[in-house]
Design a protein that fits this description.
Layout (H helix, E strand, L loop, with lengths): L3 E6 L4 H10 L8 E4 L13 H10 L3 E4 L11 H10 L8 E3 L5 E5 L8 E5 L7 E7 L1 E3 L3 E3 L1 H5 L6 H8 L12 H18 L4 E7 L21 E5 L2 H14 L5 H10 L3 H9 L7 E5 L1
Parallel strand pairs: 1-12, 2-3, 2-7, 3-4, 7-10
Antiparallel strand pairs: 1-11, 5-6, 8-9, 10-11
Helix pairs in contact: 1-2, 6-9, 7-9
């Protein structure tokens, strides 16, 4: 596989998001779903709607989200809708909770753990997808970026449990760590298979707590903001973000690096590459 291109803007702003996306030179058309993280109530670090709005407007998109596998403000559809309203998402665009009423199963090619990935049935309504991800740490995955956003992020509530259990719905969050990471990569592969040539990715490296936006109580970020990156390849994009964390001179980067390494977070990227989702070999183009 040849090198992928990752575009990089050393700024965190709505304009930077649009600039990075437009550099991809891709036109997303038809009914476009825009995957964001709605943010767990109480979380202070999630990327707010104002930063994403111009990019959502640029593709005339519908914001798409899925219910969580745990209790909280997004665990069932009614509560999730309330969170979407409270956090301002419904004020900037149409919103669709993908698994509000049903789910569908996507086949996993060459899955070691998953044979199917369960997603909200509404996903089949979309022609193209723009994936807007907040790159940050994660208590279980080490970090979360584009690959997590299209695996755990798009999976239905049941699908999230299935991934966390590495294909066994009965083990909850207690699957072996690498099995869980590999399952995330397998789930991600079903989304890129579903939208070949019709999916694009933007990562914002800001508010980079070691905790996820799914945490109602999250640590404040220790590392300074880095910028906005975009690619048509989620593997290259996440690898570039990890590399920028390692290259950072900010003393707070050690805390995030420890979280990534202690959870073997890069293994998700390694597995996604092995599955043919993308390549870790990239060219970084600064805009």
């Amino acid at each position: 596989m040849s090198k992928s291109t990752v575009y990089f803007v050393k700024d965190v702003s709505a304009a930077a998001v649009v600039k990075a996306f437009q550099a991809l030179g891709v036109e997303l058309a038809g009914k476009v779903g825009v995957k964001v993280h709605s943010g767990e109530p109480g979380n202070q670090n999630f990327i707010k709607p104002e930063l994403w709005k111009p990019a959502v407007d640029a593709v005339h998109g519908t914001i798409i989200e899925s219910n969580t596998a745990y209790d909280g403000g997004r665990g069932v559809t009614d509560k999730h809708w309330q969170t979407m309203r409270d956090h301002g998402w419904t004020a900037i665009a149409p919103v669709d909770i993908l698994d509000a009423d049903a789910e569908t199963a996507l086949p996993v090619r060459n899955g070691k753990h998953l044979q199917q990935n369960f997603v909200g049935a509404h996903l089949t309504d979309y022609d193209d997808v723009l994936v807007l991800s907040h790159f940050k740490g994660h208590p279980m995955g080490g970090f979360g970026g584009a690959l997590k956003n299209i695996s755990i992020g798009i999976a239905s509530a049941h699908g999230k449990r299935h991934i966390h259990g590495a294909g066994d719905d009965t083990v909850g969050f207690d699957a072996a760590q690498d099995d869980f990471l590999e399952s995330m990569a397998e789930a991600a592969s079903t989304i890129t298979d579903m939208f070949p040539g019709h999916i694009a990715f933007v990562n914002v490296m800001a508010n980079m707590s070691v905790d996820c936006d799914c945490c109602a109580v999250a640590e404040d970020p220790a590392i300074a903001d880095i910028g906005v990156l975009a690619s048509l390849d989620p593997v290259a994009l996440d690898q570039a973000c990890v590399d920028l964390v390692y290259a950072s001179k900010d003393p707070g980067r050690d805390h995030l690096v420890e979280r990534i390494e202690s959870r073997n977070g890069i293994h998700t990227v390694e597995t996604a590459e092995a599955l043919g989702v993308g390549t870790r070999d990239y060219t970084l183009v600064e805009l």
